[in-house]
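Hi W., the nicotinamide-adenine-dinucleotide complex you wanted:
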Amino acid sequence: MQQRFTGKVAIVTGAGQGIGQGVALRLAAEGAAVVIADYNASTAAETGVEIQVAGGVALPYAVNIADVGAVQTMVDDVAAHFGRIDILVNNAGVVQTKPLLDLDEIDWDRVIDVNQRGTFFVLQAVARQMIRQLPDSVRGGAGVADLLSNKLDKRTAEAAATSQALAASYGKIVNFSSIAGRRGRPLSTHYAASKAAIISITQSAALALAPYRINVNAVCPGIVPTPMWTQIDQDRAHLFGAREGEAMAAFIQQVPLKRAAAPEDLAGVVAFLCSADADYITGQAINVDGGYEMN
Ligand code: NAD
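Structure:
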């Protein structure tokens, strides 16, 4: 295994299980100190133990990403504990299968609050910390207040442009969208809307943070058999009287590579996007779906 993240500090949200766990294990195996940020304290602790047993560094952290105050506290705690944050994998999310005409406000708010609002405010809090820790050559002497208010002044742009720092990256952020963000989903309208919004947030953040050499990208997984998909399968079986597993099997039939993804398939792509090999990639949403979508 390469050691691309030695000395780096990563936060992975939703790392207690599923894809987030796979990503956390991969970043830790490549040398990162990983914050296992999850709503579920016990699964976060389990992932942390798995990393520590393998010789890695992990900090399990219980947080609800829909709570903006709690997110800020987490970022402050991590910065105090490790001194910096280099990588954010904004993976935590929730899904619900329910026909469009049956959705109510509670359904809508729950999914949007976690997936869209939560993803944005974690990104914002971490980006502010990444800017705080920028070397002076990139800051170009601008006041911290200017940087935090995201007004790139002329001096900062000129200093950055003439600096060797131009080629470097000072932070990597990977957001989790979905192929559901690429096309409508009548059985998960709110989920699809939140995932489309994450692609838009990724593009806006890539533009806003490019002057600080912070790369922001998204991944769009296809079908990954995690607890989330078990729930989708059960909900669809309940709605349509199908057998459990039928929805997933039908979906896989439409995947050109004719298999579901493993969390490791996502972890490899995320690790690449967090590595120096991806320093010139920003604002992209990459389908990791066996060829299901091609846009
Ligand atoms: P999962 O349900 O198996 O795991 C999600 C994790 O996020 C859980 O550990 C959960 O406790 C945590 N979480 C949920 N709400 C949270 C909150 N408010 N604060 C903090 N943590 C919270 O899901 P997964 O399948 O591993 O999916 C991971 C990401 O990938 C999600 O964003 C999901 O939308 C996306 N995705 C998954 C699939 C798939 O097929 N599994 C496909 C496309 C996109």
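DSSP finds eleven helices and seven strands in the chain.

W.
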